[in-house]
Amino acid sequence: MVGIYSLDRVGGAELYTCDLIRQLKQKDNIAVEFYAMVQGKLADYVSEELQVRYMSKERYDLILVTHNAAVEALYGKGPIIQICHGAILDLEFPSVYADYHVGISKEICDSLDSKGFPNCLVLNGLDLNQKYPIRPPNETLKRVLSLCQSEEANAMLQNACNRLEVEFVSFNKHENPVFNIEQEINKADLVVGIGRSIYDAMACGRPCVVFDSRGYNGNKGDGYLHPELFDTFVRNNCSGRFRNRAYTEEELVLEIQKYNAADGARLRQIAEKQLNVVNTAEALLDTVRCISPETRRKKRYRIVRDRLTRLRTSFRHLRRSFKRKLKQMMGIERAH
Question: This protein's superkingdom (predicted)?
Answer without folding.
Answer: Bacteria
